Amino acid sequence: GVLVSIHAQGLSIISEVARRTELAILSHNTCGDALTRATGWGAGDAVVALVQRAVGADLVVSPGPFATRYQDPGIAHEFLQACRGLPAGWRQSMPIIQGGKRPEHLADYIEHCESTDFMIIAATWVDEHPEGMEAGARQFREAWEVLDDQSAPVALRPAG
């Protein structure tokens, strides 16, 4: 895959990469807060996600407070709908949640994302784990396995 930022490189970067390659396109929100944090401007994260989806982003990074106590549930739902909902016939974009995600909150992330169809950026947790990166990654795997076992006989799987 390839990581791009429409805010740093321009919106056309997504369609340009899509035309030239078959790589998955991850659209990051670097520098995007300048556009979406001032709510009076009317340009929210859901609108930006929908535009990224329209031009070919396969994965779209969520607003920073997503799945935290600071998130606005309405804004979070709108972001998810922009990635996966209407318009009919459009390919879905997978939402990526970020910002200090931890394995003990995995069930909360699933609830906030309304399915298991999402990606986590867990770099801080994994990179700074006191027992090393492998141990940090293992804790996420173990948390997933616990949730999967609890949901038996129906295993966790993506929506749709």
Descriptive tags:
160 residues; alpha/beta; 5-stranded parallel beta sheet; 8 helices
Please report the total strand number as a whole number: 5
Weakly predicted, low-confidence segments: none
Mean pLDDT: 86
- SSE sequence, one letter per element: EHHEHHEHEHEHH
Strand order of the largest sheet: 1-2-3-4-5
Describe this entry's structure for a reader.
This protein is an alpha/beta fold. Helix content is 44%, strand content 11%. It has eight helices and five strands. A five-stranded parallel beta sheet has the order 1-2-3-4-5. β4, α6 (106-113) and β5 form a beta-alpha-beta unit. The longest helix has 18 residues, at 133-150. It is globular. The model has no long low-confidence stretch (mean pLDDT 86).
